[in-house]
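Reply to dn_fold:

You asked what the input looked like. This is it:
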Amino acid sequence: MPFDDLRADVHSLLPGRSTEAGATRRTALQAALGLGYAAAAAPLMAQTAIVTPADGLDAGTVHYEVNGFKVPAYRAAPAGKTGLPVVLVVQEIFGVHTYIADVCRRLARAGYLAIAPELYARQGDPAQYSDIAKLMAEVVSKVPDAQVMADLDGAVQWATAHGGDAARVGITGFCWGGRIAWLYAAHGPVKAAVAWYGRLVGSPSAVTPKHPVEIAPILKAPVLGLYGGQDGGIPLDTVDKMKADLVQGSAAAKASEFVVYPEASHAFHADYRPSYRPGPAEDGWKRALAWFKTHGVA
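and this is what came back:
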């Protein structure tokens, strides 16, 4: 079970010494802003998270069917455009909340059709949980990798039937989704992937039979890994192990790269959390867009 994700996210949610009054203020801020973040993802930062407007975009919730189940997804794309490059956006452990939707809108403003499926939809709603350990035990740990791969395949099919270009598909993911981005680069029809601080190693289980380090040699698409040097849940020696395995693998594996930001911790791109680091976040975003362009997604 992915409890490394739990440890990493717990670290990223700690702003240092906090008080009950401070937590109350954060809760009030969250309610006043109407941000729609999963309760488990609190505390919010003191300032408003980045908000990307939806004007000029087709944005909102859609559904598509996979094995008889209607998967909800948030999508954003330039309004009235077709033949668009596609980016799958994979959630943190907290699901598809406002931050993930905003990432989709940022990508849409860069010219992409971005789609973020609710990959826990069969197991539960992360927004209903205020306790991270309970969320992990009751929802996240019960989500099979095989289900996730199929739901992402369905997202590609939906996107390419609604204005997306099937020949230009990429994927990006954050934390839990970073691990998934690595896995999908070995599974799905993508030209490139960007994995933000996704764990690389772990114990096999029925729901997570393999981890990125085990599929590294068979990647079908090159992956850009963006990691924090101070990440308490992803030791740098696991990054080193992944690098060593990549150079022994496929052409896509050999073309994969890592960028480690020495002073950043886990979730440094998550602008609604105390772990946010503007410098690494902005640099990583520029690198992600350049990566997609270099490898034929843009």
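The radius of gyration is 18 Å.
Hope that clears it up.
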